[in-house]
Write a structure and sequence with these properties.
The protein has one domain. Helices cover about 20% and strands about 35% of the residues. A hairpin with a 2-residue loop joins strand 2 and strand 3.
C-alpha cells in the first residue's frame, strides 16, 4: 500500500516539496489544506480497524503550483478524495 514518490524526480519537477514525505498512501486537497494521508490497519479488541494518520499543510501559492504539477494526471478530479477510515489522527504541519 502507498504512493511511492521518487523525491529526486519530484524535486526536479517542482523543487523541494514539503507535503510529499515518506511513504504516504493518499494526497488530496480541500479549500484550505493539502492533506497527506497514511493508512494502517490496527487490531482493536480482535477487530481490524483502518487508521488514517493525516498531516495538514496550509495551501499557499507555491504548494498549489507544486500540487497542480505533480497531480495534473488526475485531470478534472485534481483535488482527489479522502480515503474513509474508522480512526483518524491529525496534525498540522
Amino acid at each position: 500500500m502507498g504512493m511511492i514518490f521518487d523525491l529526486e524526480q519530484v524535486s526536479k519537477l517542482v523543487g523541494p516539496c514539503d507535503f510529499i514525505v515518506g511513504n504516504i498512501d493518499n494526497i488530496y486537497r480541500t479549500k484550505d489544506f493539502i492533506i497527506a494521508q497514511k493508512l494502517s490497519i490496527r487490531d482493536l479488541n480482535g477487530e481490524a480497524q483502518l487508521m488514517s494518520s493525516d498531516t495538514f499543510y496550509r495551501r499557499t501559492q507555491l504548494r498549489d503550483m507544486q500540487y497542480d504539477k505533480i497531480f495534473e494526471f488526475r485531470g478534472r478530479k485534481i483535488n482527489g478524495k479522502r480515503i474513509v477510515s474508522n480512526i483518524a489522527v491529525r496534525k498540522l504541519a
